[in-house]
From TrEMBL:
Keywords: Transferase. InterPro entries: ATPase_NBD (IPR043129), ROK (IPR000600). It is an enzyme of class 2 (transferase). It comes from the Bacteria. Belongs to the ROK (NagC/XylR) family. Pfam families: ROK. Its EC number is 2.7.1.63. This is Polyphosphate glucokinase. It comes from Paeniglutamicibacter kerguelensis.
Amino acid sequence: MSNSAQDPATIAIGIDIGGTGIKGGIVDLARGKLIGDRFRIDTPKPATPAAVAEVVAQIVEELSSREDAPAANTPVGVTFPAIIHRGVARSAANVDKSWIGTDVDSLLTERLGRPVHVMNDADAAGLAEVRYGAGHGVDGTVLVITLGTGIGSALIHNGVLVPNVELGHLEIDSAVAETKASASARERDDLSWDEYAERLQRFFSHVEFLLSPSLFVIGGGISKRAGDYLPKISVNAPMVVASSKNNAGIVGSALQSVISEQLAV
Ligand code: BGC
């Protein structure tokens, strides 16, 4: 299956680089759904740029060998859990510090021999949610917040993503928010759901005061347990659980790879 230069691609590969696993899939961009199973390999330890690039290459190779794979020269979308400015990693809160300053776009483009577009993981999830999921068609500001090892955030205004908004790094009560209210902080401090909800309340009230969103979308692994803490949080904007769950990063990055390619023409 291939696309001519004029046709926007309708399928693309997305890869989600996380702290414990690197996952990839072939994405049907019309529906925002995976075609076939996703493919996962453990994140190497230490997760240096070269080691991670190797695993990304193995995943792309596996996906490319499938019958439904997009044409061999189509761009690959990749998410990374850090600030990504013009393809370069500018932070490393929960990843190997050697990533800071690494041109991830170039590293992976060279390793894969095809164009790669890398973006922040929460931004990818945010794009997936406004295009296909809970934030679809919502006017104003949608904030997608992912609760995981850190706190990721995506700010989308009238459908347009403002990249690299790092709300998890807001300092609230003299602490970086994600060190108190991420899913891993809940486990580390062995918090009850009531105690965790209290910390989230402090975070979300502050964020709402700053940005007046129309909608909060909550993602990350712990969104599966949303029933245990979301009803305890009170904000003005509605709060809903992300629809794309585990695959938001793969879907959002695949979509972005195609958008970036069109903008580059
Ligand atoms: C990073 C963000 C990332 C988030 C979720 C934070 O520590 O600074 O860039 O989106 O974790 O992975």
